[in-house]
């Protein structure tokens, strides 16, 4: 196209020169002017045709036709296409999450980390085979493996980093499979609590210039301040939407100081929730009932109004009495959470039962087998996590309470005195 523009300018210049020469002799040949006009017109037409690809446009619209479409059907088709696309993305994400959880659970703390090696994205990885990929902004990448980025304030050879680097290698085949199934996928990554970030595809980490750096600073001398743990996506994932049932032991032993501590624990738990979470609070002895009767058999959004209502309900809980029936309480909690999953009336994400008690006489394994495990040996398939909070100074035997948490995807029991 540049050549055409130059040619057009030369023709116009030649015509202007001839025109000026003719005017200087005070003789205007009409035939010659007509010839110039034709030449200029033909050149302009040819130039415009070439630039606009007129013939190609005509060819594309040769078989154009007007059809009557059903707008509802068209909208449904578009919606289905978008839904399928989003489901593919969700499936890819779930594969990463499931694999990461299994790999982390199966990795032993006493594993030998002496020979652990990994590709560090912060350092020069020129030795790795790479190529420019248009799907990744024409950067030099390797779509057969991932690399790990470590924040500048974290030593990249600590045991915690090496441990994450070792077990998270299991994600590489998942990354590759996801990309092969859906080439439209952008970057895939996994961020750990150590700050180590596994990124796919592998590429040299870029140091983005900070707005606080002087403009004349060389890019290679900039400090890499990136830390996945302070990024919005990491924070949102760490505090993902959840359905929560809080079980308050209201048996006869929960008197005085224990009762006050339990109330504070529940209030603190409620304060951690946001508008994306759903919650309810049940008190239990021989029966399990909601502290707010209006919220019977449901989960409510954890907005300010509902949280305030639940806190008032906790304050109004009657005097402790009788013996705590944990089986009844757990069954009721599991039923409410299951209904929320089926009817999509909750966060449709993580689910948890929080037990606030001063102890339990047994571990109630049969309840968890029936309502949470359901024959699944794979803990990643269990829908509900169980957290236990022990209150009271005199609590000595907490083995059963600890077992409830550890057997349901949690690894600790929290004690308040």
From TrEMBL:
Residues 1-22 form the signal peptide. One of its GO terms (molecular function) is voltage-gated calcium channel activity. It is found in: Membrane. One of its GO terms (cellular component) is voltage-gated calcium channel complex. It is a single-pass type I membrane protein. PANTHER family: STRAIGHTJACKET, ISOFORM C (PTHR10166:SF63), VOLTAGE-DEPENDENT CALCIUM CHANNEL SUBUNIT ALPHA-2/DELTA-RELATED (PTHR10166). This is Voltage-dependent calcium channel subunit alpha-2/delta-4. It comes from Cacopsylla melanoneura.
């Amino acid at each position: 196209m540049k050549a055409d523009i130059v040619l057009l300018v030369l023709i116009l210049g030649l015509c202007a020169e001839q025109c000026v020469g003719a005017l200087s002799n005070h003789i205007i040949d009409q035939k010659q002017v007509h010839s110039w006009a034709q030449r200029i017109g033909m050149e302009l037409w040819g130039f415009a045709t070439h630039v606009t690809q007129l013939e190609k446009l005509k060819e594309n619209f040769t078989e154009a036709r007007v059809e009557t479409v059903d707008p509802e059907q068209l909208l449904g088709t578009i919606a289905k296409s978008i839904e399928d696309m989003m489901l593919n993305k969700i499936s890819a994400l779930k594969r990463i999450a499931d694999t990461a959880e299994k790999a982390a659970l199966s990795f032993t703390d006493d594993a030998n980390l002496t020979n652990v090696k990994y590709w560090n994205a912060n350092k020069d990885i020129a030795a790795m085979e790479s190529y420019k990929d248009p799907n990744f902004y024409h950067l030099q990448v390797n779509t057969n493996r991932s690399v790990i980025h470590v924040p500048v304030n974290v030593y990249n050879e600590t045991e915690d980093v090496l441990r994450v680097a070792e077990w998270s290698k299991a994600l590489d085949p998942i990354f590759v499979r996801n990309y092969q199934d859906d080439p439209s996928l952008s970057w895939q990554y996994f961020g750990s609590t150590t700050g180590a970030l596994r990124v796919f595809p592998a590429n040299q980490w870029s140091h983005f210039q900070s707005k606080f750096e002087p403009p004349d600073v060389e890019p290679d001398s900039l400090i890499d301040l990136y830390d996945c743990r302070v990024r919005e996506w990491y924070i949102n994932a760490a505090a993902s939407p959840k359905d929560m049932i809080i079980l308050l032991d209201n048996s006869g032993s929960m008197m005085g100081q224990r009762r006050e501590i339990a109330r504070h624990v529940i209030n603190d738990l409620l304060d951690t929730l946001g508008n994306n979470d759903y919650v309810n609070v049940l008190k239990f002895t021989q029966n399990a009932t909601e502290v707010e009767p209006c919220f019977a058999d449901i989960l409510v959004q954890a907005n300010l109004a509902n949280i305030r209502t639940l806190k008032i309900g906790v304050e109004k809980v009657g005097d402790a009495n009788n013996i705590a029936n944990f089986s009844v309480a757990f069954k009721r909690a599991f039923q409410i959470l299951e209904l929320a999953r089926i009817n999509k009336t909750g966060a449709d994400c993580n689910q948890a039962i929080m037990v606030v008690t001063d102890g339990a006489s047994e571990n109630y394994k049969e309840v968890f087998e029936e309502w949470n495990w359901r024959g699944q040996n794979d803990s990643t398939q269990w829908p509900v996590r169980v957290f236990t909070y022990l209150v009271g100074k005199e609590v000595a035997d907490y083995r059963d309470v600890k077992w409830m948490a550890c057997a349901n995807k949690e690894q600790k029991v929290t004690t308040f005195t």
